[in-house]
Write a structure and sequence with these properties.
The chain is built from 15 helices and 18 strands. With 527 residues, it is of the alpha/beta class. The strands form four sheets. Strands 11-10-9-5-2-1-13-12 form an eight-stranded parallel β-sheet. A five-stranded antiparallel β-sheet has the order 14-15-16-18-17, with helices on one face. It binds 6-O-alpha-D-glucopyranosyl-D-fructose.
Length: 527
């Protein structure tokens, strides 16, 4: 026996690489043109080869799919489109056998309008306990014909829908910050948090390692539901004065979630937090709240040295306020893919290669969206293929997010590239993707996939990646360079001409050096 305090190992998630799987688009095992959990299980070998630490599954719970799973009608069941509990259990077991953690999306802000609670609310009277789980209000104006306030839905149109009462007369209104099929829950009702606790334990007991929490800055609504300024209501554009989000009572909800997570050592949560102010952002990852919070500044930054440096510094500063772990992400299922954002074509690809090296050089947790490792661009889909509710709700003015959700090309020369045995994939796949398949890229040492694999491996093995924080180096205008405490140096060239590298041995670069210099739109690691 010794009473010496042994140093505790750092939790696994503090420097993990999470791989986000959009299950509809990853791999289809039953030939219906939609990806599923069987497909994920079949591809675990690929994920092991890629070298990721954890997967995050976008929602797989029972859902009428009005928002592709972000409208949950039973949070403790798998949607039949994706499989069943048995396949989920075996996926967890087989992933763990390969040392891959499994995390899943959780949607606590709202349910589906087909959730038994909402169905019961519609069948019950105003003021009933059934209605009290959601945010029902009487309308304003003559006969209550106007919505209770002026809030718009994030997806376009009003955030309120009027229902018909059981006797057929026009009745109360309910709040939905997203689609009308996604009624917001009333988080002041204890039944709501009790049910979430049951859901958390349900999945944690099955071996799930954690959750990505959807709209983690939502849930709590301000007293009296005051009107808002209508100047900014764009999807993914966040304004800290928006009363629909980031209300102080949300923190008590996160404390409740954390208490349950703490019953399961090693489990983790990452919240989707669109909050600009660093102090307000950091509040979400205080020691008794979320383990991690998504910081989207890098995904929002242009390919410009000053903008990138700003995004990095800002994200580091935000978590430093509470001694938290920084997180980095270049894309997800809601934003335009990075190759396209950075200009598309060869240039967009070169820049995306540079940015993944920059991201992986930073201290903290990294989130990679499926297909980024293949350098997939956004796809311009024809109108008739569009499925995102944003397209309909915006009156066909916003095309929505389908362009970044096209299924992954695995092998072969023609769509569906072995994603599915059916050519009728849920979104059409471009024929040009024949050069971007996993099969093609595994063979090619210069491919995006090979770059990801080598970079993941070096990040996991080399001691130079140790330490938190970064020291910025002086660098030519349009460039940036920083050093990790362990000794890794990362340099990025966002100018149009080659630049000299800082002294050191080049560990890897996103493009071949030109006469010993770092070419335009490239990054390098040195030790
Ligand atoms: O910026 C926002 C609010 O401040 C919004 O962008 C919002 O946080 C975001 O749209 C939420 O996205 C998530 O929840 C949606 C779902 O459609 C998205 O796919 C998901 O990532 C509704 O559940």
């Amino acid at each position: 026996m010794t009473d010496r305090l042994e140093p505790q190992p750092e939790p696994w998630w503090k420097d993990a690489i999470f791989y986000q799987i959009y299950p509809r688009s990853f791999a289809d095992s039953n030939g219906d043109g939609v990806g599923d959990l069987g497909g994920v299980r079949d591809k675990l070998g690929y994920l092991e080869l890629l070298g990721i630490d954890a997967i995050w599954l976008s929602p797989i719970m029972k859902s009428p799919m009005a928002d592709h799973g972000y409208d949950v009608s039973d949070p403790r069941a798998i949607d039949p489109l994706f499989g069943d509990l048995a396949v989920m259990d075996s996926l967890i077991e087989e992933a763990h056998a390969r040392d891959i953690k499994v995390t899943m999306d959780l949607v606590p802000n709202h349910t589906s309008d087909r959730h038994p609670w909402f169905v019961a609310a519609l069948d019950s009277a105003p003021g009933s306990p059934e209605r009290a789980r959601y945010i029902f209000r009487d309308g304003k104006g003559p006969g209550g014909s106007e919505p209770p306030n002026n809030w718009p839905s994030i997806f376009g149109g009003p955030a309120w829908t009027r229902i018909r009462e059981a006797d057929g007369t026009p009745g109360q209104w309910y709040l939905h910050i997203f689609a009308a099929e996604q009624p917001d829950l009333d988080w002041t009702n204890p039944e709501v948090s009790e049910d979430l606790a049951t859901t958390l334990r349900f999945w944690l007991d099955r071996g799930v390692d954690g959750f990505r929490i959807d709209v983690a800055h939502g849930m709590a609504k301000p007293e009296g539901l005051p009107n808002m300024s209508l100047e900014t209501n764009e999807l993914m554009k966040n304004d800290d004065t928006d009363p629909r989000f980031n209300n102080p009572a949300v923190h008590e909800i996160h404390r409740g979630i954390r208490k349950i997570m703490d019953e399961y050592p090693g489990s983790t949560t990452v919240g989707e937090i669109w909050v600009q102010d660093n102090v307000r952002f950091s509040e979400y990852i205080r020691p008794d709240e979320l383990h991690l919070g998504f910081n989207f500044r890098l995904a929002e930054a242009e390919f410009d040295a000053a903008a990138i440096r700003n995004a990095v510094s800002n994200s580091l500063d935000a978590v430093a306020l509470v001694d938290g772990t920084p997180t980095w992400t270049l894309s997800n299922h809601d934003v335009v893919r990075e190759v396209t954002r950075y200009g598309g074509g060869t240039r967009g690809t070169a820049r995306a290669r540079a940015m993944i090296l920059l991201e992986l050089a930073l201290p903290g947790t990294v989130f990679v969206y499926n297909g980024a490792e293949l350098g997939l661009p956004n796809v311009d889909l024809p109108d008739e293929s569009l499925q995102d509710p944003v397209w309909e709700r915006s009156g066909h003015t916003e095309r929505g997010r389908d362009g970044c959700r096209v299924p992954l090309p695995w092998e072969g020369t023609e769509p569906p590239f072995a994603f599915s045995s059916s050519p009728a994939t849920w979104l059409p796949m471009p024929t040009e993707w024949s050069s971007l398949t996993v099969e093609e890229q595994l063979e090619d040492v210069d491919s995006m996939l090979s770059l990801y694999r080598s970079a993941f491996e070096l990040r996991a093995l080399r001691p130079e990646f140790a330490g938190t924080g970064v020291d910025w180096y002086g660098s030519p205008p349009g460039c940036l360079a920083f050093r990790r405490p362990g000794g890794l140096i990362c340099a990025l060239n966002a100018t149009d001409v080659p630049i000299p590298l800082p002294p050191g041995e080049v560990l890897m670069s996103s493009a071949p050096l030109v006469d010993g210099q770092l070419p335009a739109d490239a990054a390098a690691w040195l030790v």
